[in-house]
Design goal:
With 450 residues, the protein is an alpha/beta fold. The protein is built from eleven helices and 23 strands. Bound molecules: 5'-O-[hydroxy(phenylacetyl)phosphoryl]adenosine.
Amino acid sequence: MSAVAGRAGAITPDKAGGNHWQQDAETMTIEQLRDTQMERLGATLRSAVDNVPFYRRRLDEAGLSPDDVTCHGDACDLPFTTKIDLRDHYPFGMFAVPRHELVRVHASSGTTGNPTTVGYTAGDVALWADLIARTLAAGGMKPGDMLQNAYGYGLFTGGLGLHGGCERLGAIILPISGGNTDRQLKLMRDFGVTALSCTPSYALYLAEAARDRGLRPDDLPIRVGFHGAEPWTNEMRRQIEEGLGIDALDIYGLSEMGGPGVAFECLCKTGMHVNEDHYMVEIVDPQTLEQLPEGAVGELVVTTLSRAAQPLIRYRTRDLCSLVYEPCECGRTFARMTKPVGRSDDMLIIRGVNVFPSQIEEVLMTIPQIEPHYQIVVDRKGHLDMVEVWIEVGEDIFGETMGQLETFERFVQQRLYSVLNIQVQVKLKEPRTIARSEGKAVRVIDKRPK
Ligand code: DLL
């Protein structure tokens, strides 16, 4: 199986005015898609069982061999994979290829302590680039367009993911990464940038910053934006589109699946097309784990069909959404997923960065002056998420001078930064001032508008 099968090498306009990057693949019939999926699923299962002891054990326990999975219905018998499984096999225990076949490793935050690692072979990187090229082409990008990529570069998959896809498309990448808003706006105008990629909250922030500097949407050359990595609403879309004068498109992915590129919106804006030839998706009830029918909201479960370095079987994303199978006006036949409406775990997404409350607790509990009572308060100031961590400290600490208290707050802030990679405000609270709960402690107060 070639990771880049169906490559078009050119962008083909579709009837709705968007564009296909790999038209044959993106518009294949349902029968072709099902055959492709079963062939690739078989290869994925064989590789997982042959090369990853965890999967060999799991399939053994389920009394299954890869040859038992002969039709779509059989896939429901396969065991699930969770983030805990990835953590338990940190760092490379879930990889299916020897180290010399890897060319890249990314990582994202884990539930506790260790990050979740993601490996890529050269073929995986090439496949990823094609999936992002599909995403960018669907927004009308072509050679000659310039993409200002304000996703963070580094271990986060947003920066390098969009970067590779833009080069694959043959368009121009401006690898500016996040932050430095003045420079973002200056280069956007000076260079004639036509496309923007960043989190939706940063796009709103850029729109506001442009307005504050007296720039009107018509003064900005950008035409289209690719926004994801955190939840956003259609109302936010409206504000971004008005503020920047663009079409704002949703893109979805997660590190465990290689990063962005799992699903993308076309200019019809009627849900995100899942790249079903490379990712098999289902919706399950997060409690019973039973598969749910088309249109029902539940947890998205994804099986990789083409990733060589790290095949994942029935991975529980924890993202809650629904799927629609009706073909889209753009000609694409892949299922569309709705915007994720929430998560079935407690992960918070702060300015695009994943944060688990347990990570914060772990840090706090290593500091002896801190009592085991704390609260995490998340709010939105303007368009940016802000986090305050309220912590109760012992009586004795309030005997210290203001300067010493501030030094202590800064110390805790730095400890949290080193683990979370985001700035949080630490607020010291006097003993017994954080509300006690009779049931489950309420650790997170999320005041952000839904
Ligand atoms: O956020 C990958 C990505 C980068 C996607 C750039 C889109 C654009 P992680 O850091 O592993 O990977 O976070 C994955 O982010 O499980 C969702 O909860 C959330 N998420 C990603 N895209 C969207 C979206 C990247 N479009 C987690 N809408 C996922 C809502 C999203 N939530």
